[in-house]
Design brief:
With about 400 residues, the protein is of the alpha/beta class. The protein folds into two domains: about 140 residues, Aspartate Aminotransferase, domain 1 (Alpha-Beta Complex); about 240 residues, Aspartate Aminotransferase, domain 2, CATH 3.40.640.10. It is built from 14 helices and 14 strands. α4 runs parallel beside α11, α5 runs parallel beside α6 and α5 packs across α10. The longest helix has 23 residues.
Length: about 400
């Protein structure tokens, strides 16, 4: 048999999905496992959105749509982004796909040639690194330290640029850190990108989840020189609790949107028509549930951060958006917990799942090996129970 694709074989599976699958299997085996792995709101999709999907089925809205999405949905995306983020796009600049992750992949396909470098701030969402490699690009990782609030500086960005640099991926608010760049910080970073004529893939899917009254600034709102280099990534999964509906969208200069649409037309075709109908209702319909969920996440964040910072051996900084906390386990390195020696976040997560029956995500796959990610997109009851188990687990720690 001839060998498989070397490019494909080099791709690692998503660590978050591996942990989530393992936790679900342990539950199926009868173990009382609490999962803090996947970034998936525990809220149900709002009823008016589900009703729109049911109407679409009843009205036989079950055929193909254009590869880049329903025209009405593309216009709804533009309207929502104008209303929420103050950015102006024509529907011809919108591209719908099967989730925001798929949009990032299509965006990279549209702009990256083999060997092009893509700057990636770390900690980064697990899929970015692999998506860059999947299109033949070269990831150039810039590490943002916890003491800097997990944010890179313009000086770091400038130092990473080479003649091969084509783009930067900027996730704001961030998965996994929850950090948020201010308008001034974004202006400084995008200024470097404009000077070096770099594309910016701006993943802003958590823009609705901002805390402590902080304002959100979209990269595409920072002036025409920035906007013409920006591919904006977003979707309905986080804001509307629609992860399984698989609808993401991109907004980009028209020539890039066209290339992305062409790519999608030959790879997947259009996203699910019924999911598009539901997404149209999500964007055009009542928005109160978005704020209800945001407030719940903020309360959960406050409780989780307070309890973590009260425990011996672990700590975290206060995330400003999204629904993740990065727990620092550096104080535990070299120590033994429940008979397991902890050398990294991977060791900690494995031991905690085995002995504490709590699933967290080790952040080595996010470029931060001494951290563990908790998702607070789960109920307060589960958060309280999980933290009680953490407290008991840590109390077995020995030198």
């Amino acid at each position: 048999m001839k060998e498989l694709s070397a490019l494909a074989c080099a791709i690692e599976p998503s660590r978050t999905l591996v942990i989530d699958s393992l936790a679900k299997q342990m539950k199926a085996d009868g173990l009382d496992v609490i999962g803090f792995g996947a970034g998936e709101p525990d809220f149900a999709t709002p009823d008016h959105i589900k009703a729109a999907a049911q109407r679409a089925i009843a009205e036989n809205m079950t055929k193909y749509t254009p590869a880049s999405g329903l025209p009405a949905l593309k216009q709804a995306v533009c309207n929502r982004m104008k209303l929420d983020c103050g950015v102006d796009y024509a529907s011809s600049q919108a591209v719908m796909s099967s989730g925001a992750k798929h949009c990032v992949y299509a965006a990279l396909r549209a702009i990256i040639n083999p060997g092009d470098e893509v700057i990636l701030p770390a900690p980064y969402w697990v899929s970015y690194l692999e998506l860059i490699r999947m299109v033949g690009g070269v990831p150039v990782v810039i590490t943002a330290e916890e003491c800097a609030g997990f944010k890179i500086t313009p000086e770091q960005l400038e130092a990473a640029v080479t003649p091969r640099t084509k783009a930067m991926i900027l996730n704001n608010p961030s998965n996994p850190t929850g950090m948020v760049y201010t308008k001034q910080e974004l202006e400084a970073l995008t200024g470097v990108c404009v000077r070096h004529d770099l594309y910016i893939i701006a993943d802003e899917i958590y823009y609705c989840l901002m805390y402590d009254g902080r304002p959100f600034t979209s990269v595409a709102s920072l002036g025409e020189p920035v906007k013409e280099r920006t591919i904006l990534i977003n979707g309905v999964s986080k804001a509307y609790a629609m992860t399984g509906w698989r609808i993401g969208y991109a907004l980009a200069p028209e020539n890039i949107a066209k290339v992305m649409s062409n790519y999608l037309s030959h790879s997947t075709g259009s996203p699910c028509t019924i999911s598009q109908a539901a997404s149209l209702e999500a964007l055009n319909g009542p928005q109160e549930m978005v704020e209800t969920m945001r407030q719940a996440f903020e309360s959960r964040r406050n409780y989780l951060v307070k309890r973590l910072n009260e425990m011996e051996g672990v700590s975290c900084i206060n995330p400003e958006g999204a629904f993740y906390v990065m727990m620092n386990v550096e104080q535990l390195l070299g120590k033994t917990i429940c008979g397991e020696v902890i050398h990294s976040g991977d060791d900690f997560s494995a031991a905690f799942l085995k002995h504490g029956l709590v699933a967290t995500v080790p952040c080595s796959a996010f470029g931060a090996p001494n951290f563990v990610r908790w998702s607070y997109a789960t109920s307060m009851e589960q958060i309280e129970k999980g933290l009680d188990r953490l407290d008991a687990f840590l109390k077995t720690c020995t030198e």
